[in-house]
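Thread: Newbie trying to understand structure tokens

Hi all, I'm a second-year student working on a class project, and my supervisor (Dr. K.) asked me to get a predicted structure for one chain before our next meeting. I've only ever worked with sequences, so writing a 3D structure as a token string is new to me. If someone could post the tokens and maybe explain what I'm looking at, I'd be very grateful. Here's the chain:
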Amino acid sequence: MKRRILIIMGRYLPGFRDGGPVRSIQNLTDRLGDDFDFIILTCDRDRGDTKPYSGIKKGAFNRVGKARVFYVEPHGFSFRIIKKLSEKADLIYLCGCFNDYARKTLLMKRMGRIRIPVLVAAMGLFSYDEFHIKYPKKKAYTSLMDVTGCFKNVSWSCSSEQEKRDVKREIHRTGTFYTARDLPVLMTGETPVKGKAKGELKLFYLGRIARVKNLEGAVRSLLAVDVTGIRISFSIYGGMDDEGYYEECRALLSKLPENITWEYKGLIPADRVVEVLRKQEHVLIMDSFGENYGHAIFESLSAGCPVLISDKTSWHEVERKGAGFECPLSDYRVFASHIRDYALMDSGEFEKASRAAFEYAKTLGGSDCEREYRIMFTDAAPLKW
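---
Reply by user tm_fold:
Sure, no problem. This is what the structure looks like when written as tokens:
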């Protein structure tokens, strides 16, 4: 009999404004849904929406892909609902630990009201830069939960050894740690063919408009580019998490030279990201302060777009694979130099770089990643049926 995994998360399909977490769980259920019975408890609307999704049944199971999804109102993650659904499962897979639903789940586990194992997905929340956003509040919460034993018998799913160290830096009473890398979407289609004229470049940013994603750094890199003889169009894709921060970036964007035009294009629905990038863009710039995985990086590569990324991600092979460059955040002139080099490429030179990006993406996220989740779920969730 299949193990039943109850995933509890803030938002899921058909929502897409949460970006990476939604894509991670969608990819997980798509790829392992034949081997595990996935139940998802989530909110009935997307981030920022006042009305629920159309066509769903609240308070009942809905078939979404290879999972059964139970939608509740934003404040509907009650103790009763969590306990009720936990009784139908072998394991709770908790997306993060700072949300209201996470606090309730961990408290019930501590009190013995939840008897099945609880596995917390760290989801990049403990990286140094991410954890230090609202640090006093997060530190007080984790310290209280730690000292009261709410993490004592809880296991953790981390995407890397570094993430394990990040969690252990803040939490000391824990259960088992597992390593399971994020599963990217399965790639389809032929190698993209992109038209590009020498001296022109379509550069893009893909990520939340939030300080940790460092859109400001991308703009500062553009300000450092020698634009002699080149023209750049800069597209910004992503949800508006921090409007105040966006206004700061707009002030910098207004200083770009005439050779560089820019446009904020908002969100791309998750199922259309690769399609849009294949057709419309050349090179990703993503100089974020840290990435748990970096779905935007994988999606860009799989669309045949080389990437310019910071040295704060786990993507350390891009340069060796000819798929882009890893640049230090300490010097935006390095980003600027590579931007100019890409702009100066003619069609043949860029097609070679694009093909290398696509071929690199094809080597990632295969059966090894799936095996890590199978081992983790099998080990963490003894069958009770």
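A couple of things are worth pointing out once you decode it. The CA atoms of residues 155 and 175 lie 4 Å apart. The chain has a mean pLDDT of 92. Feel free to ask follow-ups in this thread.
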